Amino acid sequence: MTGAARAAGALPVYVQAADLAPVGVLAPPGGQSARLARCIAPDGGEYVFKTYTPEVRGEVRLPALAAMADWRLGLGGDERAELDRTCAWPRSVVMDGRAVQGVLVRPAPAAMFLDANGHSKAWSLPRHLDALARPEAKARKLGFEYYPPPVKLAVLARVLRTMLWLHGHGYAVGDLQPRNALFSFDGATADVLLVDCDACVPLSGEPAHAQRDPADWKAPWPEPFGVRTDLYKFALLVVRSLQENTAAPATDRDRLRAVMQTRTCDVLVELCRGGRPADAVELLRDKASVWPTLVTPRALYVQTDASMRRRWHPAGAPRPDAAGPFTAGPSASPPEAPSAASSGTEIPTGFAVAVVLAIAFIVLVIMLA
């Protein structure tokens, strides 16, 4: 670890549970945790104390878990900031004497939580990625936002960017599934926070936890967590979010191709089948950059074979006549807002007018000749 990291007042790799001041319980038991609780750590900052279940405490590999916290401290300032912004990475290992109790992680932003009416509120209902797969009728019935396909892809692009960043820094997400990420969307910009990052897996070396994932998200081959399993599960996230079914047994190519190019669809389908398309990482890296740009405050767009930037509207819905700002909501649909953006199949208006005038002039000359 660098001297700069230690001098910044960072938490040590190990802290004692007795030195944490409780603030309140955040969530009931679930998964690896006996509970999630807000607390004030010795550095004066507020964190979430993830207390492990007795089973997890008995089998966790303490050196590997401590190595994760130490790795974060050894990152450069910009890289550590990126990790902290996108991942609830272990900040410290919490001990009771010499016995491990759990980890401290950063709290998720308030915008990633909802109250009972679907509005943003701190420390309430977490907005998990499975909200992306909620059909519009169900979203309306529950009073939650419905996320159109371009918004789904913009959110998932943030997941993808973080996943690829971790791969480049020697880690796989491992248990990549909807309940292990939170997101926010403000009508134009999406942010995502990966949670349960103590279960992330080093690409070389020993993981801190035994390999666990839900049955619906298990890779169909006996292989340890790694880049291949991450790519498989990310493809499932995209397909199931767009098909609005978190346990979709098959891919609907027509539904996918309505909002993406055929090659993108083919790569995702092949990954879902356990294949290894040679250009998968390169293509997905491109989509991680492009998909967020297709969501703007005034309109939503998709990429298709016919157009690199086509305005999106719900299937069968009439196109609105009046332009207005796009507002996410249970019944929101994107307006046909004027846009300077064009695709390879669209002809700019000014150019079309010039062509018509030129043709008319030529016809006139011929008639007078």
TrEMBL record:
Annotated keywords: Membrane, Transmembrane, Transmembrane helix
Composition skew (Low complexity), residue ranges: 314-331
Entries under Gene3D superfamilies matching the protein: Transferase(Phosphotransferase) domain 1
Protein name per Swiss-Prot or TrEMBL: Protein kinase domain-containing protein
Organism: Actinomadura monticuli
Nucleotidyltransferase as UniProt keyword: no
Any coiled-coil regions, as ranges: none
Keyword presence, Transmembrane helix: yes
Signal peptide start and end residues: none
Record field: transmembrane: 347-368
Region entry Disordered, spans: 312-344
